[in-house]
Structures are given as C-alpha cells and as structure tokens.
Amino acid sequence: xxxxxxxxxxxxxxxVEIEKYRYFYFFMMLPVYILxxxxxxxxxxxxxxxxxxxxxMYIFIAGLLTNSVLFSTNIYPKLLADFLSxxxxxxxxxxxxxxxVFYSFSCSEFLLLAAMSYDRYVSIxxxxxxxxxxxxxxxxxxxGLAWVVPVCHLVVPVVxxxxxxxxxxxxNGIFCNNSINYLFCAGSKALLTFGLVxxxxxxxxxxxxxxxxxxxxxxxxxxxxxxxxxxxxxxxxPHLLVLINYSCLMIYDIIIIRLESNFSKTTRFIIxxxxxxxxxxxxxxxxGLKMTEIYKHLKKLFYKVRDDC
Length: 309
Prior knowledge:
Layout: E1 9-12, H1 18-49, H2 56-84, E2 89-91, H3 92-125, H4 130-133, H5 136-160, E3 170-171, H6 189-222, H7 226-258, H8 265-290, H9 292-308
Parallel strand pairs: 1-3
Antiparallel strand pairs: 1-2
C-alpha cells in the first residue's frame, strides 16, 4: 500500500520466468495484438462500407468483432507493459475496473451470439416475417442490450468489493479476474449469491437460448430441401464454431480459478495466454472465410492491395 497516496497495489505473480523471457513474451504478444486489431477492424470496415452487408446478420458480426477488439484492449496494453516492467503490479481500483470490463465483454459475447442465433432462427424458420421482426431499430436495441445488461449486472459486485478488506496482495494471474476473491479476508454471502444470479442471467441463460434456437433451426432444416440446408449450414456454422470456441475458453477460465491449486504455474500461464489469443484471432478468420459475402469483399480488397503494390 502507498500510504502517501492511499493507493493499494496488487502484485501479478502469474508470469513464468519473466526476467529471463520478458522480451520473448513481448515480441510474441505484440504482433498478436496488432493482428487482432487489424483483422477485426478490416472486417468491421468492410461491413460498414459495403451497403449489401448492412443486414442484421452482418451488423451483429460487426458488433461481435468490435467486442473482440475492446476485450483485447482491456488486457493487452497492460500485459505488454508488464512484460517490460521490473514489477508486475496494478492498483486495486484499476484491478476491479479490469475485472468489470473483462467479464462484461465476455458476457456480451454470449448475448451477441444469442442475438445472432435469434436472427438465424427468424431468417430460416419465419422467412416471410423476417423483414418485419428484424428491423434496424430492433437490431440496434439488441446490440445495445448486449453491452449494457452485463455492465449493469457486474457493476454491483465490483462496487461492493471496493471497500472489502484484503488479507493478501498477490494475485496468481497475469491480469485481474475472479481470482481476486482469494485475496479478501472474508467473502460476502450477498455478493456471492448475486454473482451466481449474474452468472445464470448473462452466462447460462444465453447459452440455453442459443441451444434452443439451433435445435428449432435443425428441426426445420431437416424437413426442408437441400438448398435451405445449404444456406442454413453456410450461415449457422460460423456462429456455432465461435460459440463452441468461446465456451471452451470460458470453461478454462472457471477451471483455472476454481481448481487453482491443481495446476502448475506454467500450465496456468499457457492456458491464460491461449484464452486471450484464440477467440479474438479466430472470430475474424471464421467470419472472413466462412461467410460468402464477407469473403468476396475480402478477396477484392486483397487483390486491390496486391495490384496497388
């Protein structure tokens, strides 16, 4: 604790042999962050520029990719700075803010995927009503709710922990997450209960909704002609790949926190790096290659850049 400024600092002790490998870590992760920002922003720009991509499905994809950039920006700049620093520390208030942003965007991913699954459900199961149901206003309301609802849920436990007494100032991680609960002298039952309700509302419920909508889609598609099946596979498969990928990463996060003592420091470090790398990198690849219309514009862009060069 810095008594003069009344600031409490937490040490991040999840790094592995940082004194020896700091430059290796830095020059490995910096290109990853640049690639995440550039690849996601390229597809977002294509969706914004081209009018034939101004449809609900592509607007949701742009929202999802924006979410990936914001999620990464919450972690990477601080992580890269820590690799080059003599001490890996963060103020308690900044740590709580990082937790709020980290879990808000994590839950927003599930809510955005839920909105996308609803869009696919209406498109495939109620095609004649699609234009009426999925109006631009509805799309932007769903986008707004996907970002606002998680913040409203998570701000309560985060603010509730601001005045909590800390008995330890060492966090076994490379950025702030729910591992911070191990630092408190005493846990609040009220905050724990609210946390479980939050997990159900913005984590489990969207996943159940996604499963329900895709079961309905599969039921309709199974009874339809080959062309409908092809269209459904083409538009639904990328969403399912992203959902499976992200769900696995979130399970990793829960396992690391709940079974912390059962993992070596190196294993935790590697899994955590994978968690913050894979999804933001995979999203633009999956949507760029699997969504035909985006792929066409992407191909044109690369040909234009090649010709200019």
